[in-house]
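quick one, 162 residues, struct below
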Amino acid sequence: MKTVIHDLGKEQNEKLLASAERVVLADGRYAPCQGCFKCWTKHPAACAMKDALHQACRVLGEADDLTIITENLYGSYSPAVKNILDRSIATSTPFSTYRGGRMHHTLRYGKRHSLHLIVYGDMTDREKDTWALMAARNAENMGFTEHRVTFCANAEEAGRKA
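---
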């Protein structure tokens, strides 16, 4: 299943839905993760907060191909996209294992195919290097077998790359 997380705005949702089964708009209207870990312990794979991201970990966990479209902010995800990723921590379990020679939480949903980061906005070469490393590490941590990063000058171009 192809899933897209983006911070491009409501007008892009319809266009993105034409190419993906699930689209999650990172509009900044979601409560941030409270760090209670109830999604790991009390209600596995479901956030304790009953808002639109209550099932975020299941949506992301079932994604065989995940595309994340985000503005580059200081070499990382936009706060709205990062919030969604934080709220989906329960795609893994609290137990640990080794993957790629490093300690990671075990995957609740198993291995998945590809992670594609589409990053737009101004960025330095050093920030691009950071994105490449972050994509590789995020893919390993989330159980994706492939990953890639596409850099775009602006949000319009990023929307076309999805």
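The chain is about 30% helix and 30% strand.
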